[in-house]
Design brief:
The chain contains 2 helices and no strands. The protein is an all-alpha fold. The chain has 2 domains: 1-32; 41-76. The longest helix has 29 residues, at 2-30.
């Protein structure tokens, strides 16, 4: 019975700590500056970046383009 009580109290302590940490993180993120206008996606970029299964393809294509760029000797 004591073990069950200890586990229950530990669970609630963990939940309270995680909620506090989340509030602190959200407050910190709210203070961060927005991206410059030239780094923001265009207004017509609906669904950018892709989510779900398309995200993996999006990342793979990005790495392939980066690899092709670097293999052509443009990197300094």
């Amino acid at each position: 019975m004591a073990l069950l009580s200890l586990v229950t109290v530990a669970f609630f302590v963990a939940v309270v700590r995680l909620r506090r940490a989340r509030r602190v993180l959200e407050a910190t993120l709210a203070d961060l500056p927005m991206l410059p206008a030239e780094d923001l996606p265009p207004a017509t970029a609906v669904g950018w970046p892709p989510e779900g299964a398309a995200f993996r393809t999006y990342v793979d294509e990005g790495f392939a383009a980066l690899d092709a760029y670097l293999s052509e000797g443009y990197a300094t």
